[in-house]
Structure of Daunorubicin resistance protein DrrA family ABC transporter ATP-binding protein:
Amino acid sequence: MPFADAIQARGLTKSFGSTRVLAGIDLTVTTGTLLALLGPNGSGKTTTVRILTTLLPPDGGTAVVAGHDVTREGVAVRRAIGLTAQQATVDDLLTGRENLELFAGLYHMGRRTARRRAAELLERFDLAAAANRQVATYSGGMRRRLDLAASMVSAPRILFLDEPTTGLDPRSRAELWAVIRELLASGTTILLTTQYLEEADQLADRVAVINQGRVVADDSPGALKRHIGSDRLIVHLEHLADLPRAHAALAGTGAHSDPEEREITVAVQGPGELRHALDLLHRAGVAVERVELRAPTLDDVFFELTAVAA
């Protein structure tokens, strides 16, 4: 039976000892859409996923997944969902085919059905050529695709992906994005946690940002970017040693920096603020290599909403 909202959480709280991780999380994921859950490390993203997938009980609040309460109807929830966790769950000593047949057996599929389902998934996730190789020989991208295939053995209606592309090279990440898009197009509802803001921008219908245990924003990527409005001035410095001085010169502007790129970014509205920022750097004796002006990105949304700007 279809539900308008595949996932609905209200007022979820969770503490570990004296540390409060969730302080009243509210989330809604419409059936057939992808919600990306963003937040700083330790903000509660994985804890939220663990509660919604019945791996962890909440201290308070309610959550309904696929029409079932996660605390009272855990078995029914688990039948409706798939989960790809941060750490791959596949066995290195088995082949790709053996791994999928093993997962099919856990879902009480007969041997013939398990073989057929494994073959379907190996083909769908572009692993057929490596089906009979030990997983220990797989690349990182292949392992993640196999892990995702394992979570789809039971053809779940709802899929939880907890940072599935962490550690992958750009090519492998793009390949996994293509698989996620195919799953979404086939009607699968997806909740994705990610540390890559570009990933959320590329894949998500909606983005929810968690900070200090609460959802501080929930909207489409485009709407979130329009909300913060201001263009971003990116100043590339000639010398990394000038970065602290540049920060001091732009104190109070919400500037944030990327030491690896020797750059500092600040929000500006109009030519006047742009000239003022550059004048502050000039008066501070900061040597500027080049400047760029661009529209806001999800990175800017993240910095503003999670208050990590320097």
Notes: The chain has two domains: 5-219, 229-306. The domain at 229-306 is CATH 3.30.70.100 (Alpha-Beta Plaits). The first strand starts at residue 5 and ends at 16.
